[in-house]
Write a structure and sequence with these properties.
Elements (H helix, E strand, L loop, with lengths): L1 H30 L8 H27 L1 H8 L1 H122 L4 H34 L2 E3 L4 E9 L3 H23 L11 E3 L1 H13 L2 E9 L3 E2 L4 E9 L2 E3 L4 E8 L4 H22 L11 E3 L2 H13 L4 E8 L3 E2 L5 E7 L2
Parallel strand pairs: 3-6, 9-12
Antiparallel strand pairs: 1-5, 2-4, 4-6, 7-11, 8-10, 10-12
Helix pairs in contact: 1-2, 2-3, 4-5, 4-8, 6-7, 8-9
Amino acid sequence: MYGALLVVVLIALGGVVAFLGDRVGMRVGRRRITLFNLRPKYTSILITIFTGVVIVAATLGVMAIVSQDVRTALFSMKELQNDLKQTRGELERTEAHASELTNTVEVLVDQVSIKEQEYQQLVSQYESTQAKLDQVTKRRASVEKQLVLVTGRLDTVTYQYDIARQNLAETENSLAETEENLRFAQARMEPLTEIQSQLTSVIDQLTLERERLNREVEALTAETMSLQEGLRGMLGRQVVFHTGEIVLATVIDGGRSTTEITQELLNMHLKKANELALTRGALVPGSETDALRIRPVDLDEAVAKLVAFKGKAVLRVLSSTNTVAQEPVLVTFQILPDELIFTAGDVIAEASVNSNADSNAILEKILALLEEVNWRAIVEKGMVSDLQGIVGQISSWQEVQDIISRVKSYENKTVVIQACAEENTWRAQGPLKVTLQIKE
């Protein structure tokens, strides 16, 4: 709109100037006016030229006044061209730099993609390694637990073996005494025979004495043969229970009626003890389901004790004698009241170890110490073990590792490791929680 108006104004202005120039030329021609002593003809030409110049000047002047672009094109074209050239150069440099940056970005994007792939691979490797580490850690904990169990069982078997050797020695001594009695009795028969031949007057009395001695000899002979047969049986067959060995230990509620306690003993605890004895190889001759022999007086005494107890008690079913395979187990009962057997901080057992020993030797000492704690809690204090024969437990395996590190921190010193009760412990309320410490 603005350009069209400008064109109309310029056309009108040119027409007005041309009209004025024509009018001035006509008057100069009529009046024959001269300028600069020129002839009227040339004066008219000069005015026409001047009029054209005025038209052009007026046009340019109006355009310059009205339009900034025209002023720039008339008076600043060179500078505009220089600026344009400089701008084009900068544009070209900017485009080149942008191209370089684009290439760099593409390279960086490729590198980032490669690094992301490497990162994902490393993450996968880390997760796989961590999973393997977890499996190995679990396996190690399981093996260490099995090691503790096997060590405990080995100590128990060793203890039972020592008892068996003692019992065998006692049996051999008893056999020797019986043989000595037999020889003594036989030696007594010879002088009696001589006296019988010399003292005919008392033959009847000596005959009676001889018969009595013969019966004694027969009894001693039978006892000797029985002992020899028992010894041969023990030597030829495996001893499944030793004298005083625990067949079953469990917790039972006392203070109830005789009928209730008797039924629980027969239907639950003695049934379980019978199953354990059968598993070990004991058996009543002529039966396939019974392995125990119980004297009624022992059962009645145990029931009476349990009726008299108030609260919980520990019931032990013990083997009265050494029992070989395929023979019944003669059992007795031991009733222990539920009482405080360890207070918090009590030292249950301790072991000495040299700080220069290697970690495995120190670990063996600690495991032996824990087995001694287990033995004392079960055998000496009467606690009830679990199915694996364990009653004591430590808070974590890390505690053992810490004790080993503390022992190793000493230089060439005999260190005493103590196993202490972590809290007050009652006989019928296990487990026995144990903590390890260094004796200062």
